[in-house]
Every structure is written in structure tokens, then in C-alpha cells.
Amino acid sequence: SIDTACSSSLYAIHQASEALRHGDCSMAVAGGVNAVLLPTTTIAFCQAQMLSPDGKCKSFDARADGYARSEGAGMIVLKPLIQALKDNDPIYALVRGGALSNDGKTQGIAQPGYDAQVSLIDTAYRHAAIQPYQVQYIEAHGTGTKAGDR
What GO molecular function terms would the record report (predicted)? Predict the structure, then answer.
């Protein structure tokens, strides 16, 4: 079990990818679950002004005022490409590389560090041995907050 807040699922996928890359396993299952079980968390997020008052997340928008909570779950199976081809598995994506970071000291525990994130992205490109123009898809983490969407 990995808990790194909003990045938990991607952290788990990175760890699984690294385990495969190092030969620690021949197949991995990774993903995440978010269940809104207790009102105390929602109350705390409201008090911290992290949630949008109208319940709508307006990511990357000048009107952004927080995010909307929801529940979900997702898991993926990871294998080395050679094995997936041999097993005739459907292949939806390739993990070329990645990187992990801890922002360290910022304005608050939920505040991302801009410079640390830029450095992390550069490191991920290096580990994947690709150039930014080669990226075909980006899944953004748009929290609907000025600090998170920067």
C-alpha cells in the first residue's frame, strides 16, 4: 500500500515499473482507489478552502476555486514488452521511464513546489531517454487551485 496523496496511483505504477525493470517480478498489478468514507476529511478540505464551493473543478481556469471530490478505482497490469507480445496481450501504453520527487519545503503541505516539479519533469525525460516533443499524451493534475494549476 502506497499513500502519497494525489500521486499515489502514479507512484505505485512507477514502483511496479521499476520492479519489472530490475527483474524483481515478471508481472505487476498497480493502481489506486479513492473512497470518500468519512465526512471529517471533506469538512477539513472545506475549511482549508481546497474544495470548490459550487462542486465544480475549473482546472486551468481564471475562475478556479478548488476541486470536487469523487470516488474511483483503477488498476493496470504491467509486464515487460517482450513478455506481453509473447502472451499476445493487448498493449495500451508503454512505460519508457519516470521519476519521483518530494517537493520539500513549500508554503504548505498541499502546496506544490514549482521548481521541484520542473526538475522532476526534466529528470523523467532523461530517464525515459526522450525529448519533450516526443510525448503524445499528458494526464494533467488540475486541482482547480492557483497553486496546483500553475
Answer: fatty acid synthase activity
Which amino acid type is present at position 81?
A: L
Domains and CATH numbers, the chain: 5-134 (3.40.47.10)
- Condensed to tens digits (0 to 9), the pLDDT of residues 11-44 reads 999 999 999 999 999 999 999 999 989 999 999 9
Cα–Cα distance, 11 to 4 (Å, whole number)? 7
3-state helix, strand, coil in the chain (%, to 5): 35, 10, 55
- For 109, the grid coordinates are 503541505
Q: Are 73 and 32 in contact (CB under 8 A)?
A: yes
pLDDT for 49 equals 87
In the chain, the amino acid numbered 51 is L
Cα 11 from chain centroid (whole Å): 7
Residue found under cell 520542473: 118
pTM attached to this predicted model? 0.84
d(CA 144, CA 36): 19
Q: How confident is the model at residue 106 (pLDDT cuts 50, 70, 90)?
A: low
